[in-house]
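Exercise 4. Each item below gives a protein and its sequence. For each, produce the structure-token representation.

Item: Membrane protein (Actinoplanes lobatus).
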Amino acid sequence: MHTYREVLALPEFRVLFLVRCVTMAAISIGSLALGATTYASTGSPVLTALSMFGGPLITLLGSATVLSASDAMGPRRASTIMPIAYSVAFLLQALPNLSWGLRFAILAMPFLAGSATSGSFMRLMHEILPPDGFVLGRATLNIAVGVMQVAGYGLGGVMLVWLSVSSLFLVAGATMAVAVAALRFGLRERPGVASDKGLLTRTRDANRALLGSPTTRPVYLALWVPNGLIVGCEALFVPYAGHSGAGYLFAATAAGMLLGDVVVGRFLPPRHRDRLVGPLRMLLALPYLGFFFAPPPAIALACGFVASIGFSASLLLQERLVRVSGPDSRGQAFGLYSTGLMVGQAVGATIGGLLATWLGPAYAMGALAVASLCSTVALAPGLRRSAPAPDHTTIAH
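Answer:
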């Protein structure tokens, strides 16, 4: 598969695309609303960053114990669990006069509910698409993420001018309910993977194999660490630029991510893909060094846009993950990636909030960029083990 028309010609993939669009719009609007109300009530960069990006820390418990449910359950059923919890959580956040502690407890709901099934959506996509359509299909879903983050954060910033925060939460909750309906009625169910091992044992054994392998471990770290540190920069947009300015910064970074995914997924020849993993990871961090100088809004927008093009390196690393993981544990492999990515983002946001408390948002963003560059350089030797062989044969663990 080489064109968007080919992947979107598949009816079930069109449903996945719709679900991704609706889900990201809801999460963007709800996240901006939560960040705005937390900063308004606490004035704390740390709590604001945690409110927007800290929820994934909760998924660590499920990933360590029941993540193999991503393979054991039917993927359609598993994929609806987190959207249902998100819808309920956003509607609860709309209640007036909630303390920030209670808001954080509600924030935990979708992450607790989805911690066992975070790889199911990617498993669905892998089963719907033919093998040669993975990168383009993943890029197409990332386009949905980029477009709807631009729309969601931009619309959320405008809505915050005219509407209350509670209204934004209601919009987000209703939008997420649409995603649940599309999954339930737009996809056929597929069987889970049978196993004679218990859920806890299977989860433990697969996690140990994936994280213990000298081939897959560097891929995971390269997917988690540089990204998470740069998300720490994004978590400081509200303290750096204020509520309305942060919406534009989030929209600019989402647009940059969209451009990178389009170029890498649609136009970059397969033979050149792996050569760009390192350069794209460097691009992800370099523009944020400019924040050491506290740039004005226009320059800040440009820096965020250019840097986010580097997120497209994740497409290439996910392609490696498909190649080096087995079909019986692919849901868990991607669930582990998803959990680690979100946890890395949460850790990055926490570090960013702490640094901003001591140094201010601008210097904190520059420091996180330096750390991201260092991690990219340190991980380069280990990534050579998962690089495709000259004849593109599968690499064994």
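Check: The radius of gyration is 20 Å.
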